[in-house]
Amino acid sequence: MNGNTDPWTVDAADPALGPRERARLADRARPDRMAWNAFRALALWEPDTWVPALLEVACGPGNPLSALEWSAAAVDPWGAELAGPDVSDVVLDGPEAVVVAAATLKAAPPIEQVTAAAVGALDRSLKGARQAGLVLVVPPGAQRSEALVGAATGVALLDGRPASDLLAATGVVTWTELGRLALDLAEGAGPAPAAVVHQLVTDLQAAWPEAEI
Questions:
Q1: pTM of the predicted protein model
Q2: Separation between Cα atoms, residue 78 and residue 95, nearest integer Å
Q3: Which of 16, 97, 171, 189 has a CA positioned 20 to 30 A from the CA of residue 50?
Q4: Can you spell out the DSSP letters for 121-185?
Q5: Which tens digits make up the pLDDT trace of 57-83?
Q6: How far does the chain reach from its first CA to its final CA, in angstroms?
Q7: C-alpha to C-alpha distances, 21 to 17, 59, 166, nearest whole angstrom
């Protein structure tokens, strides 16, 4: 992704990073490191301060998930256990809804991996009868992302209904939009979280130097 010889990782000593996860982070062709860093940076703040804002950017103002309760929501990288190498998932697991963020470095990731993310959101929402959502995180300038989400969630489930009928909201957000959200949170923050956001934005700019953050 960039020229660092020692790639930076938020919470590098986190016990959630076992050998398999560290191997994913070390593979620069995968989106895992960027997804881990971006969402761990956002998770420095309480989820009810940024999850609704993220959903408004991705799914539009007035989407049904932003208004739900997000306090104490868990931010769970690889929580949906997607198997493919082109999409890394981060589960936003709240008391009233579950959203899977499917993060990719490709302009057009394999549709079956995006479908798996949608199904993962629906499966996890069954616990507690919560609502479910899907957010696709894509490179800046990626084309036809909304159409990809529509096609991926249009796949029929076992009962014959398309996943889109059961998802409360779907949408697309770019990596640089995540960076802007982190910058907004960092305004007036202490030096420690501000430093994390600065490094995240530096990495995003190195990856996509033509995009504004």
A1: 0.94
A2: 19
A3: 16
A4: HHHHHTTTT-EEEEEEEE-TT--SHHHHHHHHHTSB-TTS-BGGGT-SEEEEEEHHHHHHHHHHH
A5: 999 999 999 999 999 999 999 999 998
A6: 17
A7: 5, 29, 31
